[in-house]
Amino acid sequence: MRHGKTRFIVGFLVLPLALYAIFVISPFVQAFYYSLTNWTGVSPTFDFVGLQNFRTLLDDSLYLRALRNNAVLLVAMPLAVILLALFYAFLLNVGGAGAGGGVRGVRGSGFYKLAFFLPQVLSVPVIAVIWAVILDPTPTGLVNSAMRRVGFGASGWLADPNLALYCVLWVLVWGSVGFYLVLFNAAMSSIPRDLFEAALIDGAGRVATFFRVTMPLLWDTIQTSWVYLAILALDVYALVAVMTAGPGGPANSTQVISLQIAQNGFQFGRAGYASAMGVVLFFSTLLIAAIMLRATRRERIEY
Questions:
Q1: Please, are residues 303 and 287 in contact by the beta-carbon 8 Å criterion?
Q2: Res 299 pLDDT > 80
Q3: Do residues 125 and 108 lie in contact, with contact meaning Cβ atoms separated by under 8 Å?
Q4: Among 1, 221, 230, 233, who pairs with 73 as Cys (CB 3.0-4.6 Å)?
Q5: Alpha helices in 95-163 (DSSP H)
Q6: In this predicted model, what pLDDT tens digit does every residue of 156-183 receive, in sequence order?
Q7: Rounded to an integer, what distance in angstroms lies between the CA atom of residue 134 and that of residue 122?
């Protein structure tokens, strides 16, 4: 009977595991192999060069610039998204006052959730095009026109090397807050109202309630969100490719690793070198996820 059960389980798993190995594991293995060659991406022949591609990365100023830009996004983007999403979700859940001094969400919270979530129904290229128009550096751009109307001068925005990366960061935050607001809102909705009311009765204000009650109970959700946002910050190819000049400009101020991989692999005919970048990005992502999960690990709080 047990032998028949094993055969039954294996029969169900063989096909999914085979498909996973072919379409997921196999491309990774090929990328690792190509990173050790000088393959152009189209040539049927290539030479094995060992770790030469990885040594070249250390002297590639453009790659190092992309690495620094990704580091800025990696630090700033998850922090901004999580703080904003937590703040808005907290307001939507306990920001209002119920009858008799109870706790409830703000009025019209359903509309606010829908409004914040709206960017999630748009594809990344559409978002990039919309914000490229809004942040048009010419005097007729939407933001520059609004600034001139209130007495401020026009700004270069995406055409300014000092501002372009922060414009990309802003769009990343704008497009991500809504999803995590809904995620945190769902998690907060499962917390009994009695806990919030008890904290208020004991004299805790809204700020103290947020840090002493809400955040500890949502820590598992925050931890998972941080990892996903870190991965998103390392993979911003579509946004940068559509939104910025060049892409990656001006003056390479918005270069990121994923854009460097695409340019070297498909534009410059250096697929082996691009594969080396991909391998570094792969292991960097795993390392960052492991560090974040380890650093933010806490005991589970039951309620």
A1: no
A2: no
A3: no
A4: 233
A5: 109-117, 124-134, 142-149
A6: 899 999 999 999 999 999 999 999 998 9
A7: 16
| Burial 207-217, CB ≥16 within 10 A → b, else e | eebbeebbeeb
* pTM for this entry: 0.86
Q: What pLDDT, in 10s, does the model give residues 212-243?
A: 777 888 888 888 899 999 999 988 999 999 99
Q: What is the dihedral of CA 164, 167, 168, 169, to 10 degrees?
A: 120
- If you search the block for the tokens 């055969």, which residue do you land on? 7
Going 293 to 298 to 299 to 303, the CA torsion angle's sign is: negative
Strand partners, 104: 96
- The pLDDT score that the predictor gives to residue 281 is 93
Q: What sections of the chain are H helices per DSSP?
A: 2-20, 26-34, 52-57, 61-94, 109-117, 124-134, 142-149, 164-189, 193-201, 206-209, 215-217, 219-234, 237-243, 257-262, 271-295
Q: Which residue from 204, 274, 207 is spatially nearest to 36, judged by alpha carbons?
A: 274
Q: How far apart are CA 11 and CA 132, in angstroms?
A: 51
pLDDT attached to residue 144 = 87
Distance CA 263, CA 274 (A): 8
Q: What is the pLDDT of residue 197?
A: 72
As given in the structure block, the two tokens for residue 279 are 């391998």
Give one DSSP letter per residue of 236-257, joined into a string: -HHHHHHHSSTTT-STTTT--H
Classify residue 301 by burial, with Cβ atoms within 10 Å: 0-12, 13-18, 19+.
exposed
CB 177 within 8 A of CB 88: yes
Q: Residue 7: CB partners within 8 Å, gap ≥ 6?
A: none
Give the model's pLDDT for residue 298. Answer: 66
CB–CB of 181/85 below 8 Å?
yes
Residues 6+ apart with CB under 8 A from 251: 161
Please provide residue 266's backbone torsions phi and psi, each rounded to the nearest 5 degrees. Answer: -110, -20
